[in-house]
Every structure is written in C-alpha cells, then in structure tokens.
Amino acid sequence: MKRRSIITLSSSIIRCQKLDSMFVSVRQISSGGKRSKKKIYHRDYQLDKVMDLQKKPYLILQLKCIIQSQNHQRLLLRDLEKEVGFVEKWNFMSIMEKYPSIFGVGGGCGKELPFVTLTGKAEKIAREQGEARNLMEPILVKNLRKLLMLSIDCRVPLEKVELIGNELGLPHDFKKSLIFKYPEYFSTKVINGRAYLNLENWDSLLAVTAREERFARERMLQSAGGQNKVRITKDGNYLGPFAFKMCYAAGFRPNKSYLEELEKWQKMEFPSPYLNARRFEVADPKTRKRVVAVLHELLKYRLPSKLVLCLTKHHGIFYITNKGARRTVFLREAYDGTNLVDKCSILMFNDKFVALSGRNETSSGNVMKYT
User: How do residues 112-134 score in pLDDT, each as one tens digit?
Assistant: First the structure.
C-alpha cells in the first residue's frame, strides 16, 4: 500500500534533530589529502511539486467525506465552520465554487438554508469507494501486522495508530472493523495506564521486507562470489541483496572517493529489520545500516515518524522537503518524477474522484510527515 503517515515505534526508530533548512550539507573527503569541504545539495523539484499537487485534491476529498458524514448527504454552509474552522472554511468555499462538477450548492431561497452536496456524477463515483476499501482490507491487515512486527515487543500505542489511521488507509471504525474482526492477529492491552495495539501471533512469512521481495521478483539476488565481481556504477547503484536503490537529485555529482565508500556500504550485510532491535549494538555499522532498512520498510507503508539522523546522510534513498504544513520524507525510488509508481485501490479511487475536477495523478504515497 502506498500512502503517507505519524507514529513512533518504541526504540526501533532512532529519534534525531530537525533540519534547519532543506539544503543538506555533507562533508566530502577529497582523494588528494586536502581538508574536507562542505557541499550543498539542492532541492528535488519534482518531489517538492508532489506536495503542491496534493493541496487541492486533499481539500476535495476532505469535503467529500464531510458531506457524506452528514444527514441526507448534504452540508449546511453555516455548519462548515464547525467542521473545519474559520480560516479553512474559506479554502473549502473556494473549492466548491471552482469545481461545480463535483460539488453542487443549493438552497438560499425562502426558508431553505444554503447547502452543499455532491453532484450526481460525483455520487456515482463515490459509491465505488466501498469496493475499493473491501479490496484494501487484506492489505491493511497485512501491513498492520508487519508494522507491529517491526516494533519492539510487537506493540504500538493505540493513540498513535488512531492519530494517523486515515493516512494509513484505516477506516474510521478500524478498531471494530479490523482489530476486533481479527482476534487471531490483534488485541488491545493496557500497560502502565496506556492502551496498546498488540500483535497476537508472529508470522515468519511476513518477516520479509519489500526490498527483498523486489529483489526476488527481479531475480537480482546473487551469490557472495558474484557480488564481488560487480563494480558500482557512477550513480551509486549496486546489484546485491544488501544494496539500496539510489536516486540522487540532478545537482549531485559524487566523486570517486564518495562512490568507493558507498560501494563498501552497499555490500555490507545487516540484520533483518524484523529482528528485535535489542539484540544489536547501536555503534555497530551493520546496526546503523539496519536503521536505514527499517526506515525503508516503514516508508513502504507510509508510516510517519520523528526525523531520523540517517535520512540526511542517505539522501540518495530518502528525500526531505519543507513543502506543506509539515516536513515530509519521501522514498525516492517510489516516484517517477511527480508520479507514484505503484498505487493501492484507495489511491486509485481518490484519483478517479478528483479527476472530476480535471486533475490527474493527484494521489501520493510512500511519504511520511512529522511535526
């Protein structure tokens, strides 16, 4: 499932300091023995644009949900401020006016108060959301199980899941429709006065990362002997079971020293993200590489978190943008320009609904947000 999200997984995730700007500074060591120097890496304008493209579709979809939650599927304009606040109200009013193909405004004559509702065409497409959610249920259950398997003690504070439930693709009644529906997988437990979502059974078949699944599909796994014969390319990509796909910004020009160090790092083995983090020493380079693998796996499920220190160091894998209300982390390989490569049924439904406005390719995923 490709979607964005805010949660902290115990100590599986290393907290780190926020960035003062979106220009990432790293030190490159020259091959001539000179003093190291700073190099500024510029923005990825395609991924920045993704955030801009989300703004209006987000408002359209949010207004759709508000209307559908009302009696008789219509929202009195006088109640809009109660739903979204005084400031946001004007943004939604603008959306209603700009997209009459989606939203119909009526009333205002005589005793009938002004209201907004979905147009007939929009209602027809909106009915397809139920089918999309049915298709998503087994994917959501699988992703939620994998999420808990990534965390220490296989549990996550329930309040954190509730906070980002919508961004994870969970239905608003997920505790009833998913948690209680699958008691063989999930349970809720109160520990030290705090409610937790708990994993009931470990499934070793799920303890495989999306990265490993991709390698298996593409038959890229090689023997140890074969790995040593492959030379790293000029963009830092290496075909091996412990390597990550690198997608640098256009302005980045790695030198020979950088690529040599990257090749060593790409070949380095590391423990599975699904193994208990308590088993490893934090200072071990293999453990630090495992943190990258954990983040890579989390972004596959749009899980937001506090910014992790290694995000800035591994900017060929992750990209951080200041666009939007919160800073956002992208998994670079998940995007082709501004387009998300692989979309789940809910995101495809969102695209179809928003396309009524004349916009295409609007939904995003594989990002995480943090305050």
Answer: 899 999 999 999 999 998 888 88
Residue 51: which residues within 8 A CB-CB, separation 6 or more?
321, 323, 324, 328
User: Which stretches within 114-246 are classed as H helix?
Assistant: 120-126, 129-150, 158-163, 174, 210-218, 224-229
Amino acid making up residue 329 = V
Residue-level pLDDT at 220: 53
Residue 301 confidence (pLDDT): 61
Separation of alpha carbons 216 and 187, rounded Å: 32
Distance CA(286)–CA(295), nearest Å, equals: 15
- The answer to whether the beta carbons of residues 206 and 146 sit under 8 Å apart is yes
Q: What is the mean pLDDT of residues 251-267?
A: 84
- Report all structural domains of the chain as residue ranges with CATH numbers, in order of start: 136-204 (1.10.10), 205-342 (no CATH)
Contact (CB, 8 A) for 11 and 152: yes
pLDDT at 339 over 60: yes
Residue with tokens 């990534």: 150
Tell me, what amino acid is at 207? A
In order, the DSSP letters of 111-132 are TPPPEEEE-HHHHHHHTTHHHH
pLDDT > 80? residue 39 = no
Q: Count of CB atoms within 10 A of residue 240's CB?
A: 22
The radius of gyration computed from the CA coordinates of the chain, to the nearest angstrom, equals 23
Please provide the average confidence, as pLDDT, over all residues in the chain: 76
- 129-150 and 345-354 helices, crossing angle to 10°: 140
The full 3-state SS of 297-352, as one line of letters, equals HHHHCCCCCCCCCHHHHCCCCEEEECCCCCEEEEEHHHEECCEECCCCHHHHHHHH
45-68 vs 345-354: helix axis angle to the nearest 10? 80
- Residue 77 confidence (pLDDT) above 50: yes
* Angle 29-46-213 from CA coordinates, rounded to 5°: 80
